[in-house]
Design a protein that fits this description.
Length: 395
């Protein structure tokens, strides 16, 4: 089959690789019909996530048709399914309390040492996201093996097309959980750093949850325009002093809720961020946390901090004192996708959530390397890339 494979920093290729096979009775094989490039895939593309190996198949946002099942799978051939990026067994302590992204059994024992050393306990398995998370092949391919297929995949009705439901795999539940983690109240002012796909879905979710005011912060004009269309007020951090503006917009006390949808590769020319860029490039200090630091200084005393942005290592000059002295509540984590998919699928069917507005480009799988390059270098206009295996290139 054909698949998008990683070969080094900014070097991804579409190669011919062996077809996946059933290796466990709970497995299923999916013929991929749509798969997206995620903002967090750029962390792999940029080489800031460790333990990738040449030839690894990327991609954790995908859906398709069931073409083969193991004897214990609950799926049926021919069903259309969206697959959560988190691989979860459904039977461990964490899965039973709906903390699916903390599954204890999905990361093979031989892959657990690095994340256990870094984080105290091993991470759960994720599709296409390095050997830190199990080394599973991803879904930017013609076919993919789905472990624990009786727990994760969401069967979708035929009247909903791929573009409408694809983002149930990651970014829609991630944006929703970011807002849900902040326990948004009707009179809350919410500030969201980053108007990428997760940030835009966090903005949409906060508005649906009834926030009085949502403020979107970015520097790309088109992405800010998308945020305004959702109902947000916007701040361009290239043109405006963000903290001063937020103080003014919140009556001088700071915003009630801050959401960091930027993560470990923050942009901007603040001195601390420029130093973090240098340290990241030489492998000393993995995370550029400038957006998170600004968010912590902008939230009000007793406010809430939600972090859906991906962080993987360490950062310094972190305002721990501000976090403690202001008494903020902080929640973060990989998304417990399976906890939210049923509710969000229903909201899509009822027209309460639109998931298609941010798709800017649809490309054949064979053009995935171009998709990565443009998605990284032209972030204002390439807001979301969906890859279609089998799609013919435009003439």
């Amino acid at each position: 089959m054909r698949a998008l494979t990683w070969h080094g920093t900014h070097d991804v290729r579409v190669d011919s690789v062996p077809d996946p096979e059933i290796v466990n009775p709970r497995d299923a094989i999916i013929k991929v019909t749509s798969t997206a490039i995620c903002g967090s895939d750029l962390h792999l593309y940029d080489g800031v996530i460790p333990s990738l190996q040449p030839g690894d198949i990327l991609g954790h946002e995908f859906m398709g048709e069931v073409v083969e099942t193991g004897s214990a799978s609950t799926l049926k051939k021919g069903q259309r399914v969206v697959v959560p990026f988190t691989i979860s067994c459904g039977g461990c302590f964490h899965c039973k309390v709906q903390q699916y992204s903390a599954c204890e059994n999905s990361n093979p024992a031989e892959k657990q040492d690095m994340s256990e050393t870094l984080y105290g306990q091993p991470m759960a398995g994720l599709f296409g996201y390095s050997h830190l998370t199990g080394g599973y092949s991803g879904g930017q391919a013609e076919y993919v093996r789905v472990p624990f297929s009786d727990v994760g995949p969401v069967v979708v009705p035929d009247h909903l097309d791929d573009d409408t439901v694809l983002f149930l795999s990651d970014i829609l539940p991630t944006g929703w959980m970011a807002a849900d983690n902040a326990d948004i109240q009707p009179d809350d002012t919410v500030a969201v750093w980053g108007c990428g796909p997760v940030g835009l879905f966090a903005i949409q979710s906060a508005i649906v949850m009834g926030a009085a005011q949502v403020i979107a912060i970015d520097h790309y004009p088109h992405r800010l325009e998308l945020a305004r269309k959702l109902g947000a007020t916007t701040i361009n951090f290239r043109e405006t002093d963000v903290r001063a503006a937020l103080m003014e917009m919140s009556g001088g006390i700071g915003v009630d809720v801050v959401i960091d949808a930027v993560g470990m590769e923050a942009h901007g020319f603040a001195i601390d961020n420029m130093l973090d860029v240098v340290k990241q490039k030489v492998g000393f200090g993995a995370d550029r946390a400038s957006a998170l630091k600004q968010a912590l200084l902008s939230v009000r005393f007793g406010g809430k901090v939600s972090i859906p942005g991906v962080y993987g290592g360490m950062t310094d000059k972190f305002p721990l004192g501000a976090m403690m002295e202001k008494g903020v509540q902080l929640r973060t984590g990989q998304t417990h996708v399976q906890k939210y998919t049923g509710k969000l699928l229903k909201m899509i069917e009822e027209g309460k959530l639109d998931t298609t507005f941010l798709i800017s480009h649809r490309l054949p799988l064979e053009q995935a390397p171009d998709g990565y390059k443009h998605f990284k270098e032209e972030q204002d206009t390439w807001t979301k890339v969906v890859l279609k295996p089998g799609m013919q290139p435009a003439t």
